[in-house]
Amino acid sequence: QVQLVESGGGLVQTGGSLRLSCVASGSRHSLNAMAWYRQAPGKQRELVAYILSGRVTSYADSVKGRFTVSGANAGNTVYLQMNSLKPEDTGAYYCAAALNRQILGTAPYWGQGIQVTVSS
Q1: By CB count within 10 A, which of 44, 49, 80, 101 is most buried?
Q2: What phi-psi label fits residue 99: left (phi over 0), alpha (psi between -120 and 50 degrees) or beta?
């Protein structure tokens, strides 16, 4: 069974930084598409960033220039470096992974979620 485990969340002040990590295990194939989503109370879940084959990246406009998604040299690991954090970045962050981008958008594997809180 594929499992995704996130770590690195917490409480920071506005302007601070956090680095989230997601480690996937149990997959028979390489998870070539990995992503970070977030959800704030009362809001829909939104895609924050994703990385394909450890190279190609994409970001939501709201985090562009502040967040960086990357993969480790070892497979099935993804990071989200979050700088210049704002209160509106507060929410539960979820790691998602799939064999490719198409599946990522429909039926990915999901992590359990990790809380990020940015105080003013």
Answers
A1: 80
A2: alpha
Rounded distance between C-alpha atoms, residue 39 and residue 105, angstroms: 16
Q: For residues 102-117, b (16+ Cβ closer than 10 Å) or e, as one string?
A: ebbeeebbebeebebe
pLDDT in tens, 1-19: 999 999 999 999 999 999 9
**Which residues are CB-neighbours of 47 under 8 A, at least 6 positions away?**
35, 36, 37, 60
Written as one string, the DSSP assignment of the chain is --EEEEE--EEEETT--EEEEEEEE--SS---EEEEEEE-TTS--EEEEEEETTTEEEE-TTTTTTEEEEE-SSSSEEEEEE-S--GGG-EEEEEEEESSHHHHTTS-EE---EEEEEE-
